[in-house]
Amino acid sequence: METVNIHEAKTHLSRLLEQVRRGRPFVIAKAGRPIAKVVPYEAPDAAGEGRLGFLAGEIEVPEDFDRMGEKEIAACFGLDDPAP
Fold first, then answer.
1. Is the pTM of this model over 0.70?
2. Of 61, 1, 5, 68, which is closest to residue 35 (Cα–Cα)?
3. Which of 39, 43, 31 is nearest to 4 (CA)?
């Protein structure tokens, strides 16, 4: 694996990142001591399992869920009766 110093990495960043994109990671060193390894980023598979809809069929939302607790909330604001 190629090791480059910080100055070289800054000077040739585009070229080095193109190499990483092609599967050739590199190490950035300061005074000859490795401080960072640059490797290709692997994005999560967009077609894979996601979080959207992960509870589908597992829970029920009550019909009046948008009005639940409205009397208690109205009382907190000093209202006698919630709006119809």
1. no
2. 5
3. 31
